[in-house]
Amino acid sequence: MRVPAAVSGLAEILKKTALPSPLIRFGEVSVRAARDCSENRFARLPKSDLLDHTQAYVIQVGGAEVQVWAQLYANAAGHYRLFAFSRCEGISGMLFSLNFTTELDAKGIIVLTQRLRFSEGRKTGDDRAGPMRAAKTRLIADILCRSGIPGFG
């Protein structure tokens, strides 16, 4: 399958992208992250990753190790997707997914629409989960606005 130029161009940009600092700040909280693309740590990643497994990190949060990685690949239907996953203490889940193939305009330019949505895994009533989701949304929106990434801010 031939990779669309917009997707391969995005892959090349993302492969060269690195964290500007090993210290990541979330408001008043700071965590350390390190790139770790070792085969044994991320052995279950698909071999078809167009990012060549360059976007895999280990973040130390308290006494826990959180593995975070992104991959860009074509699924069985031929749609190119950028997925981000995390794993900590045997629990893993998807952080986000972007489908690029169906989001190309007539000139082949990838079109993205910003929308933040959080789900809450707590076993509490809606009276506490709703404000928690809203706080997370505000925090991430603030981080993105201050990040300098084009399109946010």
What does this structure look like?
The protein has 153 residues and is α+β, with helices and mostly antiparallel strands. It folds into 2 domains: 5-113, no CATH class; 116-153. It has 2 helices and 6 strands; from the N terminus they run H-E-E-E-E-E-E-H. The chain has a 6-stranded antiparallel beta sheet, with helices on one face. The chain is globular.
Short description:
With 153 residues, the protein is α+β, with helices and mostly antiparallel strands. It folds into 2 domains: 5-113, no CATH class; 116-153. 22% of the residues lie in helices and 30% in strands.
Which helices and strands occur, and which strands form pairs?
Elements: H1 5-16, E1 23-26, E2 29-35, E3 56-61, E4 64-74, E5 80-88, E6 91-99, H2 126-146
Question: Keywords, please?
Answer:
2 domains; single chain; 153 residues; globular; six-stranded antiparallel sheet
Outline? globular
Number of strands: 6
The amount of beta strand, in percent, is 25-35%
Helix residue percentage: 10-25%
N-to-C span: 37 Å
Q: Stretches where pLDDT falls below 50 for ≥5 residues?
A: none
- The overall average pLDDT, rounded, is 77
SS field, number of helical segments: 2
What would you call the quaternary organization?
single chain
**How would you write the strand order of the largest sheet?**
1-2-3-4-5-6
